[in-house]
Write a structure and sequence with these properties.
The protein has about 220 residues and is an alpha/beta fold. It contains six helices and eight strands, in the order αβαβαααββββββα.
Length: about 220
């Protein structure tokens, strides 16, 4: 979903106040960034990953990261690392895939905002809509998402963000309100990553009922 499609999808006026529950499917860089952004805003976010965390990134260990080291994480991610480490984190600018994992993404999942919010090694089997009881709730309240996983009981969320190649295995037609598929666009990985960050900004601004809610802007230089 590109930025124009995302704007159109969000134009329906769907809002969700914190601490609304959000499932983020996929714990790659953009998935972690989407979860972190939501946590900064006060949402109850859960990351769900089918494979071991960072499997794809760590497999290339000594390969160079596909972007400039100073562009390998958002300003918000760097702020979270700095707050946790008492430094200007990450501790050094990563140049290899292994360093990218060890200096940025793994420490981010151990920050106060994201610690304990990753379910890894759990496959998403199906997603169904769960209508609320109209006798107890207003008629215009949208249904929740019920996620059936390969392990454990189904989980219920008010919104979903998928950051994977394919959409989630939904039993209902897409697009639908409160379901978002993020995918960065660009001619190279760096452009794709930063395009994805812009989509995250747009998504959360709409959920908050705001025309502009950019948590990255105050931290940007120049």
């Amino acid at each position: 979903m590109n930025e124009e499609q995302l704007d159109e999808h969000l134009g329906s006026g769907t809002t969700l106040d914190p601490p609304g529950s959000i499932a983020v499917i996929g714990s790659g860089p953009l998935g972690i960034e989407a979860a972190l952004y939501g946590r900064y805003l006060g949402y109850d976010v859960t990351l769900i990953e089918a494979g071991p965390s960072f499997e794809a990134l760590a497999a290339e260990e000594e390969a160079p990261i596909p972007m400039r080291p100073d562009r390998c994480a958002s300003p918000l991610a760097r702020s979270a690392l700095a707050a946790q480490q008492g430094e200007t984190g990450p501790r050094r600018s990563p140049t290899t895939m292994r360093e990218w994992v060890e200096e940025v993404w793994r420490p981010l999942l151990e920050t106060d905002l994201l610690r304990g919010r990753l379910l890894s090694g759990v496959s998403l089997i199906a997603v169904d809509l769960v209508p609320l009881d109209s006798e107890e709730e207003e008629d215009d309240v949208p249904p929740d998402f019920r996620l059936s996983l390969s392990e454990g009981e189904p989980l219920i969320f008010e919104a979903m963000i998928t950051v994977t190649e394919e959409d989630a295995p939904c039993s209902f037609p897409l697009p639908t309100d409160y379901y978002f598929h993020l995918r960065g666009e660009g001619e190279d990985p760096e452009s794709e990553f930063w395009s994805g960050l812009k989509q995250i900004v747009t998504l959360y601004a709409s959920l908050g009922g705001r025309s502009d809610l950019d948590l990255y802007r105050p931290l940007r230089g120049g």
